[in-house]
Structure formats: structure tokens, C-alpha cells
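Postdoc handover notes: sequence design on the structure in folder B. Input C-alpha cells:
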């Protein structure tokens, strides 16, 4: 769907290729949530009719979210997003282990989102232990390291289903089988997988799963942790008894309704969506590599999500590329983080062994339900010229 920027003359056609960062709210989702700001604004814990109307919305949201994942409605714990869901899984599992007299030991991978990595560090700060598993050059978790740590019987293993930067899909069924054999519960951050790939928590032997609304057409600030065994998670915030005491606080009813509706739509459209995005992604990769032959496309040799294309461009820097794409009306994102002024390569690419200078020239294009062939045409037309200009700039600045 074309976006336009009316402030420029003539109005500039905009191309949004940053759906892994966030997505626009879908009109059907907005429509479903609006009554919970107007007619049904009660507190879902109140027993009177105002409360009952809100409670009905919350129950519908649980059913729709659960239905999209093939789990039970009472296994859906709404959170403020994917970040909180990851914190609840990892810190909550460590606290539950301690309550059962077991070590607070959590395990994750080196390519996780900061939400999971920082939660593991928080467990260490609480007196627990973390093990960070390495990955191979394609981003697949190292099974030898996983097998070794499982012998220690950690409280939880957490492996992201789809990586948000490079799109690699982990072999969740094999990982789950190993965890199950060792009697260790498995959590997956499925924020980038939900709505993009079929997710079968049974086949993957997953006890906990994080999802986020704003990646699938619901607003920001709503997500959920699917909890299939409440014994393994303790609350990390404290208050009333809402959501079985696992996540107290008056529920964000409108947000939950939005997440449920977005999940329902995503489930209904999944098969078509995967076919359409896979075709667009393949075409995009073919055109980009034909236009600039020395670019490196990450996670190309392994199963990858249909919506993420991560490319490193030798002799170019991410920040300059992003700026030039933005000037051309194309929104994408970089593979590096700017901390305290110094540009650092992404921890994901570093873990995959990508050379530092190459990692610093990485950009991500991420597609969504509204992406069309016209969007990709605009990108592929602009791509070689922008790469050429940014490379010349690097040479002129003495950086190449
Ligand atoms: C893999 C992954 N996990 C967690 C998050 C955090 O989700 P939220 O923005 O809902 O807190 C994101 C968002 O970028 C993500 O991509």
C-alpha cells in the first residue's frame, strides 16, 4: 500500500520496509478495540454490568489469541509487549526455580533480542546464573553447547523462534526434543515468528512463548506470554490477583482485544501471507544481488522467515545507507546499534562471526501484509545508485 508524504511537493511516495520494527494498526483491529474506550470501558474485575462488558472483551481476546496458537484461553497472560513477556519468562522461571529449592540458572542464545539477554543478566544480578549459547555462521544454535548445559538441569532454556535481525528460523522441534528429554522447560521468543510462520508449541515442546501485538497489526504496548504450566513461572511484578497472580494489574482490555483480533486475522491469512511474502522476498534477494554483486545476504542457507532480508554491503556504512534510503522515501533499518556515540556492530552478526567492517554495513528490509511489488520496485530501482553514492562517500572520508 503506498504511503505518501504530503509535506513535500510533489507529494513523495513512501515505501515502508521496516515491519520488523513495527506495523501500522490494521483497520479491522482498530474497529474491534474502539468500543473498549467508549461503551465498554469498565474494569474487567468488577462484578457489575460495566465490569462484565469489559470482562467479555477480555475473554474474547483470550479465546482469539489462544485460537491462533492452538492453546487454551487460560494459558494466555497479557503483558505490555514482547519485552515484558521475555522478562516474565526468564526472570519468572528463575524465581520459580528458587522457590522450589533449585538453582536460578537460565540459558539463552547469543543472538536473542536484548529483552531476553538483559533478562538473563537480571537473573545473574539476583544471584543466579546465565549460560549464553553460541550459534554457527548461519545463526543456528550450537547443539553441542545446548546438550552440555542441559546436563546441569537449568530452570529454563530460551531460544528465539525467528531472529529479528537476520530472519533465521531455529530448528525448534529438535531443540524442544532435547529439552524435553532432559526434563528442562523451553521458552521461545516468537515475536518475529507469530503471524509469519506456523507455530506449533506441542511439536516444539514449548512451555512458554512470547508474542507482541505491534508486529502483527495491533498497537504498541500489548503482548502476551503463553504459559502452559503455571508452576514454572512466578510473578515479577506484584499487586492484585489479576491473571492468576502471574501478571497482576488491571488488564489493558482494548489492547488485549486488539491483539486477539490481529492474531485471529493473522491465523486466517497465514498460508496466503507466507506464500506471497516468500515470493516477494525471493524476488527481492535475486534483484538486489544482481544489482550489486558483492553484497552478502545473511541466513540464506538455512530456513528463514519470509519477511526479513538482511544484507551487508562491503565498503558502505549502515547509517549513511539508512539516511540515503530515507531521503529516497524508503524506510528500512540498520544492523548496528549506536551506543554512547560509538557505532558498534550488531551482537547478532558478531555472534555469527561476520567480520566487523562488513557488519557495520548491514541493513534490514522487512516486509509486511501491505507490502507490494511496487514497493520492491522502488527499492530495487534506488538500490544500486544509493550503494554507489555511499561507497564513494566512504572513500572520500577515508573510511573504505
Ligand atoms: C524478537 C523480539 N523480541 C522482543 C521484542 C520486543 O517486543 P516489544 O516491542 O513488544 O516489547 C522485539 C521487538 O522488536 C523482537 O523483535
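Designed sequence:
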Amino acid at each position: 500500500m503506498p504511503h505518501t508524504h504530503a509535506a513535500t511537493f510533489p507529494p513523495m511516495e513512501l515505501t515502508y520496509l521496516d515491519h520488523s520494527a513495527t506495523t501500522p494498526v490494521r483497520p479491522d483491529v482498530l474497529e474491534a478495540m474502539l468500543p473498549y474506550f467508549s461503551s465498554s470501558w469498565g474494569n474487567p474485575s468488577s462484578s457489575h454490568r460495566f465490569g462484565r462488558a469489559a470482562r467479555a472483551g477480555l475473554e474474547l481476546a483470550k479465546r482469539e489469541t489462544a485460537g491462533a496458537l492452538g492453546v487454551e484461553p487460560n494459558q494466555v497472560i497479557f503483558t505490555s509487549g514482547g519485552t515484558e513477556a521475555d522478562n516474565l519468562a526468564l526472570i519468572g522461571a528463575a524465581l520459580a526455580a528458587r522457590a522450589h529449592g533449585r538453582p536460578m540458572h537460565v540459558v539463552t542464545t547469543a543472538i536473542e533480542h536484548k529483552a531476553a539477554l538483559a533478562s538473563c543478566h537480571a537473573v545473574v544480578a539476583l544471584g543466579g546464573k546465565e549460560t549464553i549459547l553460541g550459534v554457527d555462521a548461519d545463526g543456528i544454535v550450537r547443539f553441542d553447547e545446548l546438550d552440555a548445559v542441559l546436563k546441569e538441569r537449568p530452570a529454563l532454556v530460551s531460544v528465539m523462534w525467528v531472529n529479528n535481525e537476520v530472519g533465521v528460523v531455529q530448528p525448534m522441534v529438535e531443540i524442544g526434543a532435547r529439552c524435553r528429554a532432559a526434563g528442562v522447560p523451553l521458552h521461545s521468543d516468537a515475536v518475529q515468528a507469530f503471524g509469519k510462520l506456523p507455530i506449533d508449541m506441542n511439536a516444539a515442546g514449548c512451555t512458554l512463548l512470547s508474542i507482541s501485538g505491534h508486529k502483527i497489526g495491533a498497537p504498541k504496548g500489548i503482548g502476551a506470554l503463553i504459559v502452559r504450566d503455571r508452576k514454572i513461572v512466578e510473578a515479577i511484578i506484584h499487586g492484585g490477583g489479576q491473571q492468576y497472580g502471574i501478571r497482576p494489574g488491571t488488564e489493558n482490555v482494548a489492547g488485549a482485544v486488539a491483539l486477539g483480533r490481529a492474531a485471529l486475522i493473522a491465523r486466517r491469512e497465514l498460508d496466503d501471507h507466507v506464500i506471497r511474502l516468500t515470493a516477494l522476498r525471493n524476488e527481492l534477494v535475486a534483484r538486489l544481488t544482481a544489482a550489486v554483486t558483492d553484497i552478502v545476504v545473511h541466513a540464506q542457507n538455512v530456513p528463514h522467515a519470509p519477511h526479513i532480508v538482511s544484507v551487508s554491503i562491503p565498503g558502505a556504512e549502515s547509517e549513511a545507507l539508512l539516511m540515503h534510503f530515507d531521503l529516497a522515501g524508503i524506510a528500512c533499518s540498520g544492523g548496528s546499534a549506536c551506543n554512547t556515540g560509538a557505532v558498534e556492530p550488531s551482537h547478532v552478526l558478531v555472534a555469527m562471526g561476520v567480520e566487523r567492517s562488513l557488519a557495520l554495513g548491514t541493513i534490514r528490509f522487512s516486509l509486511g501484509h501491505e507490502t507490494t511489488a511496487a514497493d520492491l520496485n522502488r527499492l530495487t530501482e534506488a538500490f544500486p545508485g544509493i550503494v554507489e553514492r555511499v561507497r564513494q562517500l566512504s572513500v572520500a572520508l577515508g573510511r573504505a
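Context for whoever picks this up: Residues 81-83, 86, 113, 115, 160, 164, 189, 191-192, 212, 214, 223 surround pyridoxal-5'-phosphate (CB under 6 Å). Don't rerun without checking with the PI first.
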